[in-house]
Known about the structure:
- With 254 residues, this protein is mainly beta.
- It has helices at residues 33-50, 55-58, 184-192, 197-200; strands at residues 7-8, 13-19, 63-76, 83-94, 97-106, 109-121, 126-128, 164-170, 203-212, 221-229, 232-239, 242-253.
- The chain contains four helices and twelve strands, in the order ββααββββββααββββ.
- Strands 1, 2, 3, 4, 5, 6, 7, 8, 9, 10, 11 and 12 form a twelve-stranded antiparallel sheet that branches.
Amino acid sequence: MKGIPGIITEEGKYIENQVIPCYMTDSTTSLRPVSFMDIAQEMGFRAANVMHFGFDDLIKENKAWVLSRLHFSFDRTPHWRDEVEVATWNRGQIGLFYVRDFTLKGENALVRATSSWLVLDVQGRFACRHADCLDDIPEKYRCDEAAMESLADKVRLPKDKEPVLAGTRTVGYADVDFLGHTNNARYMMWIEELVPFETSKTVRFKDLTINFNHETKPGDMVEIYRIIDGDTLYVEGRVEGNVTFTVKLNYEKI
């Protein structure tokens, strides 16, 4: 496809070489979790479009991909100016979900991820189990390799701890994508903004699982609750009492 900078390998992976820019990193020059989510979703869109089951193909049926679950791990944290190879591949349908995995590799960097997707009926705003264009995906565009040991799990908050209201966020212009709802990476941005600056310099992000339960739209006020359990942070977003997203984030002290 014209203008796409990547290549498709014999294994069915879509690969690009990238350099980590300064605006994707924090005060320690480490890649931020939200920035990896930005990279991953754009890589996923590009790969699916090149292979003819992406946004341009689904929208002809008034359908689109929506992310349901994501799990990723910073095995070795990428930094500003790192030259990295970013790869993504389609693992096909597993149960209810269409699964896409990712790796980001550099000389001193390694990030692994698995994501679970659903097909959204854009007009009806409900998940559907099929799109016609998905019937015609060539076998060469499927790769069974797993980046993670298991698929992204359902996040459950600890039952023995009470969530604490950490803040609120009203969905606005900068949060909303072309589907008219909050972009998946913006939820991670909201979580990052809850971290005190001094704390951000003393811990290292390890891994995260996020579930997207219900979409949020412009004007929605999201209440953000958290639980700190040792070196694990749980976060839950609610709109009028309904859970919209849940997160389990593990970190370690530097």
